[in-house]
Amino acid sequence: MLNNNSKYYNLFFLLFISCLTYAQNTANGRITDAKTNKEISGVDIFINDSTTPFLKTSVGNFSVQSDSIIYKLKFSKKNYSAETVNITPETAENIFVKLSQEKENTIAEIVIHNEKPKYKNKKENPAYAIMQEVWKRKRNNGLEKFDTYTYKEYEKIQFDANNLDSAFMSKKIFNKLDFIFDYADSTASGKIGLPIFLNESMYENFGENKPGKKTKRLLVAQKTSGFQDNQVITITAKNLYRDINIYDNTLNYFDIGFPSPVGTNGFSTYDYNLTDTISIHGENAYKIRYQPKRKDVLAFQGYLYIDTDSYAVLGATLKSTQKINVNFINSISTELEYDNPDENTFLPKKFITEIELTPFAKKRTSKSIIAKRSVDYSQYEFNKPLDDKVFTRREEEYDDKFVDKDDAYWAKARPDSLSKSEQGVYEMLDRLQQTPKFNRIVKIYETLASGYYNAFKGIDIGPIFSIYGKNEVEGDRIRLGARTYFGQNDPWRVQFYTAYGFKDQQVKYGAEARYMFNRVNRFMIGAGTKRDIEQLGVQLTTDDGIMARTFASSTLFARGENASLSSINKTNIFASIEPWKNFQVRVDGTLQSIKSANPEKFSLMYYRNGDLRKTLNDSHVTLSLIARPGAKFSQTGVDRYEHGTLAPTIILKYTRGIEGLFNGDFNYNRLQFMFYKPVLLGSWGKTMISFEAGKTFDNVPLGLQNVIPGNQSYSLAQNTFAQLNYYEFVADTYSTLHLEHHFNGKILSFIPLIKKLKLREIAFIRSAYGTLSDASKAINVDGFKYSAPSEQIYFEYGFGIENIGIGNLRIFRVDFNWRGNYLDRPDISTFGIKAGFQVGF
């Protein structure tokens, strides 16, 4: 399953900008909480007798430099007593500063036992008895027990460029951008940390459990550091995170399953150690340390805080191991805090997740992005009557100005005030947007991300990745296109392309226009036309879209000869609407003529009323019902971006062919169904399930038949059969099932030497069954050479290796495919290798 989100990873390469100038006198060290011994950040450091802080730390380490002699440092942080340290040449290195809290509001001091006790079995482990009580009294989210509920949610996402140095900032790309270095923080390692992105969001959440189930999460305010007009960066930031429930057996990070330390099967993955009984906010709690039995698996390490009376989870920390096998990720850490209003339920209180991302190497000293998200939940109200209008989508919610709020609003809405460095992000990015050089860099990123180059206002050229293709009929093929583009929320779009084949010396083209009348229910109409060469029979549940890139133009290398290309003239009009969220109703009217693009080697000729014809004329109307429950989208224009989720796709289509309408040759009725869903299976990985079924109730020629999709290219293609030739199986009635499981390295991590490569294994099986009537065969001139997989279920199987690459850049995948049956057919391939790029975590 290929992931087309590779464009968003280009963001990481644009965020590395910073600087540091060394002075002659330096001092460095570490700052911790006097009670917990945890490193603390956000500390103001004053040099000598200055009343202005020299810097505010972003991590627990610090390093300061001055042109004058440093003889004293003062450390100050809100809710902590200030500390002053005298500095001499002998004491300027590795200073250890402990700050005491003025008010007790955190976990009390305890003794941490680093040793790992050994037990004959888990029942001897006192932590096992505690966890049994947790499982026995497993709590549910408290929102489910009330008739209605409301609460507010404040989300803050910040990106910091990390591990930067003066050599990096001296590159020419940073000329005329040197003012950004005024916002950098220095660290004890001598490197630089630079805040580069900040997004704040306020949500109002509404829910109803009785009499019906309704929920709504309304974005009421959003503030982004200089990127209000470039929402793709904000979307990329938000798409890194998933909502998690510590009581679930599997925790979803990047749509990858991590076993939860609170899950009922936790002892199969983790070792637990009861370290102490402590106090959290006045509640006595067991502190349990956990760590994975094997360091090579996707798992966490950290602490659980369990109430000694109710056995509720009061809090938890989750930190990835050093050997985490996730692309672009060096580390993950999460802190969770819960309220427990009664013995059966919990309420989220505060979640903090920090992710370190690097594009290439996993070294701790590598340049990276620290992406930190904090969420505060507050103002819970229960069983308060809610008007039905609360859950109704309103036009004003989709207005760009709806989320614009002034500084006074944010000062009141934030749980805590912004730090000095966070305030600087807004100022820095606003200044950057006034810099022509920075805007040129952003334009390069937007070109790579969208595939289109903005030639001038309102016009984009592209997509640039579709310029070249090759096939047997056209030979080398060049495709150029353009579209209107004024912004990501455009209510209308016009697109066109033209293509030329150097072998057939024919010009092809396509054009489409779409207009959206209403942002709430996304009522949209469109029309388009094209004349092109296409490879039909590579998709069962097709759409009538005009601007999709043809499969033929994408196939540069293939096994065997592929002569089965078709020449298509198509005109389409459509209307679509979403009467309910994530449920689309679409009606298409399509006129098309289809003939063989290579008559000498591939025939589409058929009989109609006793006459032999080579061009098929088709007029049909299609009703499509498309459901995406749980899917999340951004933007409100004709095009929108989908966030990564595990949401299913469910499609039901009915097509009616109309004889005589605009010279249509056949009356026919076709019903089709498709279901696709990724499913997390705990530590065992993720399974992709794809099922399709359909039936054509009337006899139609080959150009309108259901073709079991083959793939004669050497590249990966979703929902196709790797060892089938094009048009090998044709069916009036069909069903197909694709099962593909990604183990995320679960098996290969047991093999010495191999496990160091961090490869991941995939297993898959594909099957198809169908029938084809003699009448449908007889329509075609070459009809009786076509058949359906009716004797037995056709199947193929195999395995793949993904995550091939170096460092954090592991985007290559290779599949090994075997054909399971129908082995006596001529010109078949019983074994094949497919390869391609698969960009994802």
TrEMBL record:
It comes from Chryseobacterium carnipullorum. GO terms for molecular function: carboxypeptidase activity. The keyword Membrane does not apply. It comes from the Bacteria. This is Carboxypeptidase-like regulatory domain-containing protein. Transmembrane segments: none annotated. Residues 1-23 form the signal peptide. Keywords: Carboxypeptidase, Hydrolase, Protease, Signal.
